[in-house]
Amino acid sequence: MPFLKLTGKEPLNKILDRMAQKNGMRHTIYLTNGDKYTGEWLNDKKHGKGTEVYKKTGAIYDGEWKYGKRNGFGTFSVKLPGSEEYTKVYSGGWKNNKKDGNGTYFYSESVYYEGEWCNGKRSGWGRMYYENGDIYEGEWLENNHNGQGILWLVLLTSAQAGGHRYEGTWKDGKKHGPGKFFFPDKGQLYEGVWAQDIAKCGILLDSGRKEASKPTTYPIPKVYLEDVHSVLMEAQNCLKDNASLGD
């Protein structure tokens, strides 16, 4: 007589395992590492909306989850030293437990960044407020100014006067490429090319001189060529001579 195997019947251990899995909304669950989580689950993983309190640091994450990781919109807060009160550190988008998308990160009460993130780093467009009052607004790449951006140096002149500022290209956090530096108190503008934060070549022009609080004694004189045609002919002849020497 052949051996008959029953089909369609789930083993008891799998049934018990499935029944033990956490799904849907649950009250506070204490995890093995001491953390505690209150919120939604899917197949034994944090999924949906929920709040986790981290035992080691006392920090709190309140927001969205996906398959056990912070994913979506959420707020991360830490406990103030010697207090039971919390302060918000980051509020915004998350992906795979890292800051991703639009969000605001508070380094301190007066120092913070608001803008785009990618893989836990400031990347994309954003605005940074610094401790000394400077403000940068523009493009970022992996936590550095990169691309087009404006830096307001508000301590050099009053914010009402517009502030000294640089508008132009950045690379790896430094002025690099074409750009303009404004001196509103003197009513002047430097326009040129930078390399690794150093101005290499450019011209100084009067700009907003009438509105300047401390204009220079004399305006920058305009320089004109007396004989444009002769200068052009001389340059062309010089090029011809150099070309003939190379033959």
The count of DSSP E runs of length 2 or more, i.e. the number of strands, is: 15
Characterize the largest beta sheet: strand count, sense, and whether it forms a barrel: 15 strands, antiparallel
Radius of gyration: 31 Å
Strand coverage percent: over 45%
What is the helix tally? 2
Low-confidence stretches: 1-6, 15-20, 157-161
Shape: elongated
From N to C, what is the helix and strand string? Answer: HEEEEEEEEEEEEEEEH
Helix content: 10-25%
Order of neighbouring strands in the sheet with most strands:
1-2-3-4-5-6-7-8-9-10-11-12-13-14-15
Question: Any overview of this molecule?
Answer:
The chain is mainly beta. 11% of the residues lie in helices and 52% in strands. It is built from two helices and 15 strands. The protein has helices spanning 12-20, 228-246, and strands at 24-30, 36-42, 45-53, 60-66, 69-79, 86-95, 98-106, 112-118, 121-129, 135-141, 144-153, 164-171, 174-183, 188-195, 198-206. A 15-stranded antiparallel β-sheet has the order 1-2-3-4-5-6-7-8-9-10-11-12-13-14-15, with no helix packed on it. Mean pLDDT is 86; it is low at 1-6, 15-20 and 157-161.
What tags apply to this protein structure?
247 residues; mainly beta; 11% helix
In short:
By secondary structure, this protein is mainly beta. The chain is 11% helix and 52% strand.
Q: Any chance you could write out the topology, listing elements then pairs?
A:
Blueprint: H1 12-20, E1 24-30, E2 36-42, E3 45-53, E4 60-66, E5 69-79, E6 86-95, E7 98-106, E8 112-118, E9 121-129, E10 135-141, E11 144-153, E12 164-171, E13 174-183, E14 188-195, E15 198-206, H2 228-246
Antiparallel strand pairs: 1-2, 2-3, 3-4, 4-5, 5-6, 6-7, 7-8, 8-9, 9-10, 10-11, 11-12, 12-13, 13-14, 14-15
